[in-house]
Design goal:
By secondary structure, this protein is an alpha/beta fold. It has one domain: 3-Layer(aba) Sandwich (Rossmann fold), CATH 3.40.50. The chain is built from 6 helices and 4 strands, in the order E-H-E-H-H-E-H-E-H-H. The chain has a 4-stranded parallel β-sheet, sandwiched between helices. Helix 1 packs across helix 5. The longest helix is centred in the N-terminal third of the chain and has 24 residues. The relative contact order is 0.18.
C-alpha cells in the first residue's frame, strides 16, 4: 500500500462554545471520511491531527502543543510516499505547513474532495452534518451536553451515528 499523509482542517474557531464544538465535530468527521476514502483507494493513511489531538496526548488549543503536534506529523510525513489534501473545508494553517514540507522534500501531493461536501464552506457545520445525515439533531444536542458534562474529553466517540 502507498503510505499517504492526510491533510484536512482540524481546528474550528468560534467564540460560541456550542458552535465551536459542532464545528470541531464536523472537521473530525470529515477527516475520518478522508481516512476511509484513502483506504478504499488502496492507500495506508496517517492523520496526525486525529491521533495527536486525542485526550491525554496534546491540547490543540495550546499554541505550543499544537506546534509540537504539527511538527511531529511533518516529521512522520517525511517517510510517506505522498500527501493528500482534502479541501472541501478550505486550507488550514496546518495544511499550509504540510504543503510547504511536501514541496521542500519533493514529496508528491494532490488535492481531493469528498462527494457531498462541496458546499460545506457555504453553510454552518451543523447544517452540513444534518444535510449529509451523518448525525441527527438529537445526537448533536446530546453531543453538546456531553461536551459540557465531560469538559471536552473525547465525547464524539460516544455518539453512534
Amino acid at each position: 500500500m502507498k503510505l499517504v499523509i492526510v491533510e484536512s482542517p482540524f481546528m474550528y474557531q468560534d467564540d460560541n462554545e456550542d458552535l465551536r464544538a459542532i464545528g470541531q465535530l464536523r472537521n473530525i468527521t470529515y477527516a475520518r471520511l478522508a481516512l476511509s476514502d484513502c483506504l478504499f483507494r488502496g492507500e495506508a493513511p496517517y492523520a496526525s491531527h486525529l491521533l495527536l489531538t486525542q485526550p491525554f496526548v496534546l491540547d490543540d488549543d495550546d499554541a505550543n502543543e499544537r506546534k509540537l503536534g504539527i511538527d511531529a506529523g511533518l516529521d512522520w510525513g517525511d517517510k510517506a510516499d505522498a500527501s493528500v489534501f482534502y479541501t472541501d473545508l478550505g486550507i488550514s494553517t496546518g495544511m499550509k505547513y504540510g504543503k510547504i514540507r511536501a514541496d521542500k522534500i519533493k514529496r508528491p501531493y494532490e488535492e481531493r474532495t469528498i462527494d457531498g461536501w462541496e458546499n460545506a464552506l457555504d453553510e454552518s457545520p451543523k447544517t452540513t452534518l444534518l444535510r449529509l445525515e451523518l448525525y441527527t439533531e438529537q445526537q448533536l444536542s446530546q453531543y453538546i451536553k456531553m461536551k459540557k458534562l465531560f469538559n471536552g474529553l473525547d465525547t464524539e466517540m460516544l455518539l453512534k451515528p
